[in-house]
Amino acid sequence: MAVPVVDPSLNPVSPTVEAEAETRRPRRRPHRADVLVIGAYVLLGVVVCLNYWVDVNNRVSSHLPTDHSWFEWLFSHGAYSVRNLENPLFSTQQNAPDGVNMMANTSLLGVTLPLAPLTWLLGPQVVYALYLGGALAATAGTAYWMLSRHLVRSRAAAFVGGGFLGFAPGIVHHANGQPNFVSNFLLPLIVVRVFRLAEPGRWRRNGLVLGLLVAYQIFINEEMLLLTAMACLVIVIAYAVMRPRAARERAGTFAAGLGLGGGLALLLTAYPIWFQFNGPQSYRGLQGGVFHSWGEDVVAFVTFPRDTIAGNEAVEATIGLTEQNTWFGWPLVLLSVVALALLVRRSLVARILAVLVVLFSVAALGPEIRFNGALTGIPGPWSYIPEDLPLVEMMMPTRLTLVTTAALGVLLALAWDAVAGNGRPPVPAPRTPEPAAERRWSRWRRPIGYVAVAAAVVPLIPTPLPAEPVDPPPAFITSGAWQPYVPDGHTLVPVPIPSNVHGLSTLRWSALTQHQFPIPAGYFIGPNLDGEGVFGAPNRPTSTLIYRSMDAGALPELTDENRRQAVEDLRFWRASVVVLGAHPKEAVLRELMTALLGEPQRVDDVWLWDVRDRV
């Protein structure tokens, strides 16, 4: 998650502010409290993934089961690439024979490649569940480090803010099958390093570290890096407007460090980025701008998210099944408004957070304002942005609120710190008698403040993600009995053929065998005939026939042309064997494939059509 924060200690504007910032910065040595904080985050990460651990090998997300299977496949891709010393930027083990451009998909290479040994040892299902909880905890941990070392003095304040940044509603919702959006542990480090670029005499070191962090983040999630860069740009502009003199004094050092860091990141990632946009199976934009119209519902901001203590699954029927990138609940929205009103007058950071909250919340509303699940006809900010604008065409407006989420996490830490009394000047003012009303408020300030923060945050504590059972692959697949039937250069064609709609179980055949055989089609983004990105491979006549028969539950009228096309498609896929395992539509699928290819063999627990003599 983007963690937009400007720390006055990183950009001191006067000796007084610099001294105050120094008093707010705690000791840098590890503290016993730090260990307890990390332990709490790890425990929460385990709780979030608890339903997977009930039967980790045979459970997937019930919210996004296909995405869950895709990321299991990605962990196998990393293991396969390392084991076979193959180019990880491309794969021919899915969508054979055309393959998949992994840089043009959410490939998570920065994670799957280093974890390859664990995937070999434990399998992609176990590594997926381990990594998902670990990434949530790691993001909260780095956010805690950023807050406690650079912004607030109270470790309790940093704990609350870091916990929100790592386990915010939108982040936990993405954990339902999309671990790339919870892999934000580098972003707090990147933001801190950006604002240390202005340190005199350290721009080279800061620039080099920034460049390395940015380069690595590109192989984890480019979209979250883009959101972080946008947030940092807004912060820099806001700071320059609010502190023009200090900004001018440090502009040269900042620009030098930024140029060095950007140059290094570009040098390290130039070829992968070129491959993403110009390599085989690359594409330009998504067909129909499918993401462009997805704006955030206004009511979603004050709604409790599904996967939390206060959440209710039924609310999705009202607002609609969205990504829940906001879903802060009304107590947090109310607390944020009050906290900003109280802090903006005396805190530069709070003023910048207010800019971020307003700007990114409004921008996330999309091309048409949506209220309580219904379009209002009122134009939104994205209605004035061309759909084919580079980068914009790939963005989903609602995800801009992840910057809002980050700003609120920092605001929670600031509010707690202020309640704890850590926002006062380091040089005490001359003591004057306090009026009775002020004494009473001083006595009640802390309990009221702590209760208010708790009332906003506790309802958002995540609950275990919903999971559902999935059929394991046939023993014919897991035992390796398929090997005599699939020579090198040929594919195993599972039925149903995997796609973004059908064939969840058959996509897992490839994932759970760690890519021992290539398969046709699959679940990914690749080019159509016009070069636009589409989900899955363009359907061939036989795959269309399979999907239509499954949906209807009955066999359509078949012709000799259907049989000819089936052979032609198998030849295109370089098929050696067609395999049908246990499936809810097994009867109609067996009848269809028999009508197209003749009687099958029963081998172990599958129906098998050996087509090597036909292709």
From TrEMBL:
It comes from the Bacteria. The keyword Hydrolase does not apply. The keyword Transmembrane applies. Residues 1-26 are annotated as: Disordered. It holds the Pfam family DUF6311. Coiled coil: none annotated. Keywords: Membrane, Transmembrane, Transmembrane helix. The chain crosses the membrane at residues 33-54, 126-147, 156-175, 225-242, 254-274, 327-343, 348-366, 400-419, 448-465. Residues 77-376 form the DUF6311 domain. This is DUF6311 domain-containing protein. It comes from Micromonospora radicis.
